[in-house]
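Re: the 341-residue chain
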Amino acid sequence: MPILLLVVIELESENLSQIAAAGFELHLASDASERVKIIETVGESIRAVLTNGSTGLDAKEIAALPKLEIICALGAGYEKVDLAAAGARGIVVTNGPGTNDASVADHAMALLMAIARGIVQADSAARSGEWARSRYPRPMISGKKLGILGLGNIGEQIARRGAGGFGMTVAYHNRKPRDGSPWVYLPSATALAQWSDFMVIATPGGATTTHLVDTTVLDALGVDGFLINIARGSVVDTAALIDALENNRIRGAALDVIEGEPNIPSRAARLKNLILTPQYCRPFARSCASDCSTRSWQPGGAFQWTHGADARRLVPDYPSGGLQRSYREVAFLADILLSRL
């Protein structure tokens, strides 16, 4: 009997076919209205959910899925998954930290280069035959100051790309300094912004980082500074950023995430000094495959998950005492999905 899997994020059709071939009956609900309808229709039979940090799964939805046994957040984030509700029922919550770090770091540098060098405007000018318009001076990247707001694994990879590839000087701000880090530590987001030519946001989402980048930080970044966000839209006060860009209080911004996405504020959409991509650096299955194990997958056989060997895949703050049983014929999604896509 196939395992009913609710997929609440966008995936490539090829990936969906591979998941189905692994023994899942897929129910796709990438927008809120679809999710409500599917939960009402087949929610009593759903045993697994595939989501991500920015989409999550809330307590009301979990309560409407009485047979739910595992929630897999594709990628590192899981901030919108209600861990308390899941843990109270012993529902496993997994994520894939590190599986897409390189992809995200690559895209951060792509955004940095695109906004600094005016690539979008230059492409438009060249296509329209206005070559002279595309030749105005643009800032250098090599040798500039790169500030990393959130020096986790992704932030570290961005720092290495900037320093090793472009000879940039790197500084960072975290809640506390990282032992052994070769980069300069600065005591606040404002201090980091004031120091930086380019500031890249690589922090987790959640209440502790909401609007961490506000008017004060943006003014510290200054008229020659660039902001790049590949983390969570909630980290930046969008209204403050739009105001800073409209009034040229910072030089430019490049965002892979924005508050309220996919709905973009009309004022933001008009800005020439803003580049937007649609969560383009979120996890892609093939970029994740090399970091995942297939040990818990036997084609055609039963799935087995216990809180032993694979407990490393639980999210770090999963409620203690939540795992009281083992799970037969339940895909250990973090391993199975990523290893097969």
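Confidence is low (pLDDT under 50) at residues 283-312, 321-341.
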